[in-house]
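Priority: medium. Attachment 1 of 2:
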């Protein structure tokens, strides 16, 4: 599969030094999106282990991996703070949208670093909810839909300022930070932002947490209404801000 070098996650991993032959741990792997991307980067001589506490997500990841040709791709159910010694050590540990949900992110990174080889790389991508949405022209429906997601994350106890805290988290955990970067997800009149799909994926959590009702969201028409608002405007809408950072164990 061709590597999409325009993708933020892909560039973050490549620039951090992820390359062929590495043994990598993907923490909070979910259904395996980042793990499969890592397979393309490390090649057939590398090894990827994904771990997540969610049994359903691991089941999906394993089902997807059944049709994948990578020889060394494994998914494990487990707590990333209580990894068994049998997992061994890794050249790199990566995670996406994981640290923001940790009660003590410093302790989490410090614990994970025990599984990192000397000179190994810790790479995390997190999304900061405090800087978006942003626009000059009004996008009321976009902002309302975005507020459902933001309030859901807040009620789940996530660190809403995680992007700004990445450098401090890595440093306090004893790692040497090599880079911190951020990038906006931007919608233009001719390039939509997949907000409807994101709300759909989060809808059970939005409803369960009492953020909004199914009737308020009206998920079956939401994307069409978002598209109508986008096409009626000539403005730019900033939907999300992604932070990425990597640090090294010396």
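Attachment 2 of 2:
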């Amino acid at each position: 599969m061709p590597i999409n070098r325009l993708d933020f996650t892909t560039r973050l991993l490549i620039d951090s030094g992820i390359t062929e032959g590495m043994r990598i741990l993907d923490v909070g792997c979910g259904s395996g999106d980042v793990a499969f991307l890592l397979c393309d980067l490390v090649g057939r001589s590398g090894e990827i282990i994904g771990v997540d506490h969610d049994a359903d997500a691991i089941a999906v990841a394993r089902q997807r991996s059944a049709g994948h040709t990578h020889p060394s791709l494994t998914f494990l159910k487990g707590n990333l703070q209580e990894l068994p010694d049998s997992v061994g050590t890794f050249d790199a540990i990566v995670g996406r949208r994981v640290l923001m949900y940790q009660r003590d992110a410093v302790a989490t990174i410090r614990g994970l670093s025990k599984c990192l080889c000397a000179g190994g790389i810790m790479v995390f991508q997190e999304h900061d909810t405090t800087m978006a949405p942003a626009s000059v022209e009004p996008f009321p429906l976009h902002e309302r839909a975005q507020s459902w997601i933001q309030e859901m994350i807040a009620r789940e106890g996530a660190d809403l300022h995680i992007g700004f805290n990445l450098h401090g988290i890595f440093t306090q955990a004893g790692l040497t930070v090599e880079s911190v970067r951020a990038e906006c997800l931007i919608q233009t009149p001719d390039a939509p932002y997949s907000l409807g799909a994101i709300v759909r994926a989060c809808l059970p959590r939005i409803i369960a947490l009492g953020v909004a009702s199914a009737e308020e969201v009206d998920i079956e028409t939401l994307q069409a209404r978002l598209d109508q608002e986008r096409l009626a405007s000539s403005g730019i809408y900033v939907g999300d801000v992604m932070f990425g950072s990597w640090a090294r164990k010396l």
